[in-house]
């Protein structure tokens, strides 16, 4: 058995042309190569892969302590995966100033698998996705009882042009499912340090009892 802390990096978007997997891969690569974070293993968890329907469990997840009591196989598979981890990095884009509906739905499906564990929120968007981040923090912390790291990195698409409704080439590329090296380099320079600091805090919390 490995003594490494097990941390899930959740991909919060599910549309076919999403950049979520690219951002998650970049984020995870940065975390894995940082010598301050060698006591953890970071695993990407694609929420979309679990194919969860709109919430359809008859009993509120807070009342389900034993995963065998979930009615549906999809919920049991989702619970089994999430319960494996000591902590989470929830990576979310901003959709209409909030989090994607599919991510909120996936969070609602479970309670005990998350509750009391730590999470860091990382968002991306035209202005860094701060409103999605705020919403996500509230759902995780106040709704589910997750211990949320204060540091909340916001990855902003570079080159925003106010005269063009804050559009940017990076945003157009993102809408089409692409992230360029320039954008990743910009995020590394702007947010690299806080991502590592946030992850260190996440690991510190993960070592404390639930
Ligand atoms: C339905 C929809 C709504 C969006 N709303 C916002 C928004 O409110 N704020 C923002 O910064 N970006 C917004 N965007 C742009 C996203 O930040 C950008 O498309 C990003 O690539 C979405 O993440 P994804 O590719 O992983 O789905 C929106 C995109 C979509 C598809």
Radius of gyration: 17 Å
What composes the largest sheet?
A: 6 strands, parallel
End-to-end gap: 21 Å
Order of helical and strand elements: EHEHEHEHEEHH
The number of distinct helices, counting runs of at least 4 residues, comes to 6
Q: Write down the CATH class.
A: Alpha Beta
| Backbone structural class | alpha/beta
Beta strand count: 6
User: Can you tell me the residue ranges where pLDDT is under 50 for at least 5 consecutive residues?
Assistant: none
Measured as a percent range, the helix fraction is 25-40%
Indicate how many domains the architecture comprises. 1
Hetero ligands: flavin mononucleotide
Shape: globular
CATH topology: Rossmann fold
Query: What is the name of the CATH superfamily?
Result: Flavodoxin domain
Give an overview in words.
This protein is an alpha/beta fold. It has a single domain, classed as Flavodoxin domain (Rossmann fold, 3-Layer(aba) Sandwich), CATH 3.40.50. Helix 3 links the parallel strand 3 and strand 4. The longest helix has 27 residues. The radius of gyration is 17 Å and the shape is globular. The mean pLDDT is 96. The structure holds flavin mononucleotide (FMN). The site of flavin mononucleotide has 16 residues, from helix 5.
Short synopsis of the structure:
Pfam families: FMN_red. The protein is α/β, with parallel strands linked by helices and 210 residues long.
Comma- or semicolon-separated keywords:
about 210 residues; alpha/beta; Rossmann fold; 6-stranded parallel β-sheet; 6 helices; about 40% helix; about 15% strand; globular; binds flavin mononucleotide
């Amino acid at each position: 058995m490995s003594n490494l802390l097990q941390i899930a990096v959740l991909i919060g978007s599910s549309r076919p042309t999403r950049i979520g997997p690219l951002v998650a891969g970049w984020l995870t690569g940065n975390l894995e190569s940082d010598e301050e974070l060698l006591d953890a293993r970071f695993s990407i968890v694609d929420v979309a892969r679990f194919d969860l329907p709109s919430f359809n469990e008859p009993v509120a997840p807070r009342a389900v302590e034993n995963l065998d009591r979930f009615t549906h196989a999809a919920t049991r598979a989702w619970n089994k995966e999430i319960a494996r981890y000591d902590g989470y990095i929830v990576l979310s884009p901003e959709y209409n100033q909030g989090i994607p509906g599919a991510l909120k739905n996936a969070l609602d499906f479970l309670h005990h698998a998350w509750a009391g564990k730590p999470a860091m929120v990382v968002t991306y968007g035209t202005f860094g996705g701060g409103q999605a981040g705020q919403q996500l923090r509230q759902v995780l912390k106040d709704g589910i009882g997750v211990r949320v790291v204060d540091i909340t990195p916001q990855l902003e698409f570079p080159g925003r042009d106010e005269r063009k409704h804050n559009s940017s080439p990076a945003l157009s590329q993102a809408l089409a499912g692409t992230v360029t090296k320039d954008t990743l380099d910009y995020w590394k320079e702007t947010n690299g340090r806080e991502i590592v600091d946030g992850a260190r805090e996440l690991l510190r919390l993960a070592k404390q009892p639930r």
